[in-house]
Design a protein that fits this description.
Radius of gyration: 19 Å
Number of helices: 14
Mean pLDDT: 96
Low-confidence stretches: none
CATH class of one domain: Alpha Beta
Helix content: 25-40%
Order of helices and strands: EEEHHEHEHEHEHEHEHEHEHHEHHEH
Distance between the termini: 53 Å
Strand content: 15-25%
Shape: globular
Number of strands: 13
Largest sheet: 6 strands, mixed
Length: 393
């Protein structure tokens, strides 16, 4: 059986090395996110494009570059292996020759958050955690609740009180203890920070533990595999906390180190809501960090993240790739949801649909050219956002 080639954790900012085999949150030196490090030479001895053909389709097929050492601790609901769908009619409407949508709404709990929580909950259980807490705008909460239930662990969920009802209901049905907070996801995180030591909670917030990122990086591995071990020219990714974008960027580096791909990279574009666009503002101001966005508002709850701990990693990936950052209105993303649905049969979350609205602008401005192979990431199912469409009708 394949096993993890994890060696240690390293701070993504200051580089300080940390022990991997005990529960860790952020860097003990500077407070920034930790990243898992692997012996990629050893991993590449058994993890190869050829070996993958005989493995199952869940994300655990990449076990050598995932952090769980004992396969008995893997907690799975069948996450990963989502389709990359070529969308020729939509491409023609936008003005492209080739457009794909990676549909993460087909994951367990109907969003890409299942990837991160599958790996993070598995590793937390392996390292002895029993009580897990997360601040969430919705989908991460549902994923933590589901995987904690699967693992036999307790889940404590803190969400803004205006979180979509589907997210609240699913968390309660999974047996999680749900607290609704008057405020934003940052307020939920502050409540966990105040109480976690006394309550014995392990904090599972975005990039405040190392392993949700490892689950998300499998997006990059799958994308390359589905495109025949090549990468697209352009990727558009809806960005709240940013782990999907940062995770893919890590995956590309790992695959290059193992000799699977070359040094070329897609241009990465982050898409945010006009009412909550800290990365867009920081990118265009030339900043390396993103200040908290004031009075954050958007109907796309997954984009309502006014301050991301991994801001510097997101901005670095955008600039290193030659990409960019765009914000779109709520009205544009809701309209784009119907455009995606009617031309592809995918009912995207507003966050995913926002990428179509952004892509139209990039094509019209000549930033993305007709012949560039482009991929949009739809991060969840529109079925979890029905209130958005009630409000739009």
């Amino acid at each position: 059986m394949t096993s993890s080639c994890l060696t240690h954790l390293a701070c993504t900012s200051c580089g300080v090395r940390h022990e991997a085999d005990r529960l860790q949150n952020v860097c003990l030196s500077c407070g920034k996110p930790l990243g898992a490090q692997y012996d990629l030479a050893r991993a590449g001895a058994t993890l190869t494009p050829d070996s993958l053909r005989a493995r199952g389709h869940s994300l655990w097929r990449y076990a050598e570059v995932l952090p769980v050492r004992d396969a008995g601790h893997r907690v799975s609901l069948g996450e990963g292996g989502t389709p990359l769908l070529r969308c020729d009619r939509l491409a023609a409407e936008v003005g492209l020759d080739e457009l794909h949508i990676k549909d993460e709404g087909l994951n367990p709990t109907a969003s890409f958050k299942a990837r991160g929580m599958a790996v993070a909950v598995s590793r937390a259980r392996e390292l002895g955690a029993t009580r897990l807490a997360v601040p969430s705008a919705g989908n991460a909460a549902g994923a933590l609740a589901a995987y904690a239930a699967r693992a036999g662990l307790e889940a404590f969920i803190f969400m803004p009180e205006d979180t979509p009802r589907a997210n609240v209901v699913e968390c309660r049905q999974y047996g999680a203890r749900v607290t609704l907070i008057r405020g934003l996801i940052t307020d939920c995180g502050a409540e966990i920070a105040r109480r976690k030591a006394a309550e014995g909670w392990f904090d599972m917030a975005t990039l405040k533990e190392p392993y949700r990122l490892e689950g998300k990086k499998t997006l990059g591995y799958e994308l390359a595999e589905q495109l025949g071990w090549s990468l697209p020219d352009v990727i558009l990714y809806p960005t709240g906390g940013g782990t999907g974008l940062v995770g893919m960027w890590r995956a590309f580096d790992e695959m290059e180190a193992m000799g699977w791909i070359g040094s070329g990279r897609p241009r990465m574009f982050t898409v945010q809501a006009e009412g909550c666009a800290p990365m867009v503002r920081a990118f265009h101001a030339g900043e390396t960090r993103a200040a908290e966005f004031p009075n954050a508002r958007t109907r796309a709850s997954g984009l309502r993240v006014p301050k991301a701990i991994g801001d510097f990693l997101i901005l670095r990936a955008l600039r290193d790739s030659g990409g960019g950052a765009l914000a779109v209105s709520d009205e544009a993303m809701i309209a784009a949801t119907g455009e995606v649905g009617s031309s592809t049969g995918i009912f995207p979350a507003p966050e995913g649909a926002a990428c179509l609205a952004a892509l139209r602008r990039l094509v019209s401005e000549g930033v993305v050219r007709r012949g560039e192979r482009t991929v949009i990431f739809n991060t969840g199912s529109g079925l979890k956002y029905l209130e958005c469409f009630d409000a739009a009708e």
